[in-house]
Known about the structure:
alpha/beta, 24% strand, globular
Amino acid sequence: MCYSTDARPPLPPITGGSTDDTELVLTATDGNRLLAYTARAAKPTGAGIVVMPDVRGLHPFYKDLARRFAQAGAVAIDYFGRTAGISERAADFDFMTHVRQTTPDGIAADVAAGVAYLHSPAGGGVGSVFTVGFCFGGSQSWRQSAAQPGLAGAIGFYGRPVNARDAIPKMKAPLLLLIAGSDAATAQDEFDRFDQELSNAGVPHKKVVYEGAPHSFFDRSFEQHRAASEDAWRQMLDFIKEPTRQPARA
């Protein structure tokens, strides 16, 4: 598990904020109904973010993160509509039972619903959409480079390469890999191998390693990793606003 109920994302090194934040229910093309939480940018830039949580699904950390993307509108999605429905969940919700029932195709369909929402007038009518995920969601975010036509980019914190490697041949959108240097869940040579495999396949990407930072370092309570968190924010925001950012390769 990445983040506890009490965890909150570190404050971004920017001013501004989101507005019109609300919970909603999205419908994927296969008919699945999923929980989501959206926040529209106070000063829209034309970019939008689909936030992909860790194994616990949609919980306060990710709702707060959606609000913190001051330069872009955002929608955070839940993975468990197909097996857990959209009703309110207790604190002891058995999320791992539902994680094991997710599929890459199902997650891609749910992300696509988030993408469609951000493109719609209700979602702010954004032009470029990115994904950002954490842990389980980090790997799944990288996979969206292959799954989502026209995606502008995919960002992943603490993702596991083993869960995204098979998608490399179909990846088109650029990737940003934000790596904890002391991630106990994945050996650093796995990230090095993944980096090389992406290069060999011609997938545009950037890998940033935060030496000494543990899995889940991007957390307001980790004062000792404040510099890493601030840099991770800057890496994300630069990746999103990069002037030369182009749609995914055809």
